[in-house]
Amino acid sequence: MTATTPGSFQSVTFAAWRDHPPGQDRPSGRHYVTLPELLVRLGSFGLGLRWKAQIDDARQIAAFAEIERACGGAGLGTLELLALVAPGLQFIDADFAGYAGDELKVVLREFDSTSWDVCTTDASVIREIRRHYPDAVPCHPAGVVRTPVHHDGDHDW
User: Could you tell me the pTM of the whole model?
Assistant: First the structure.
């Protein structure tokens, strides 16, 4: 995979845990933003991407290891990743990098089960994230985008 300069990316961060009002057959209370929810928010932008994953605790949690393994090599398509990730699965610290060919297009980073960072080359993705998560604020993309590409034997991005 090719390295991408952080300067070509825009990034936002927002709370993973949210209050949601009652309605739409949901009780009021707390809601956790999951990886599948974010993948859906990417819309058509995300459909053609291949995903690489780096998940802390993958060695201790079998479901995490399975996802990380499936995302190895050429990566996993968005629909395949959606099918693999259980609806309520909550990662603690994880990076999901979406590629179009060899070009990194988006990084979804879950931090400490408390926040998500979305870093992308496409301004419309940032607008869509801000529309759904109004608390999203800009953050520095260098903290999200890993450059140059790193290979440590387990991860190759």
Answer: 0.81
